[in-house]
Amino acid sequence: MTLAINRIGNELLVFMRDSRPDGPGRENEHLYNFASVAARLDNQVLFIFQRQRGAWELPTGYIQRGESPSAAARRELFEESAQLGRSLVFEATIKLKIQPDERIDIGALFRTELEALRPFTPTHEISDILLWDLKTPITGYVDPIDVTLAQLAFPDLA
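-> structure tokens emitted (158 positions)
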């Protein structure tokens, strides 16, 4: 069952809360190839504007060799938004079907609280950041997969 689909046909297939990527012995961390972060300040979720895709998304990136999913999530949050979360909490394992080759990517979704919004400087990859309540209309395309992940990570905002 598809939970969400975006404009290029990528699909969110699985959102599973009962797994732990960095658990005892970290035996599961090799299953993940990317990490995403739902970061919240008060009642708003942090989104980044990814230039190449022309979309508002959650901070997300591939896990580097030897890196744990939580370390990748922390790194991506900082690299893509200049933000620092208090502490990362594992939220769920997610499975995406990526177009056009229909490859399956397995990711770790983390959530965190931000203490304050830190200054952001645009990069070649990310042009802007936004705190969004998930309801108020915003300018630009928002990836529905990321909206769904944010709503699942913070159900009180859905």
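The CA atoms of residues 55 and 151 lie 17 Å apart.
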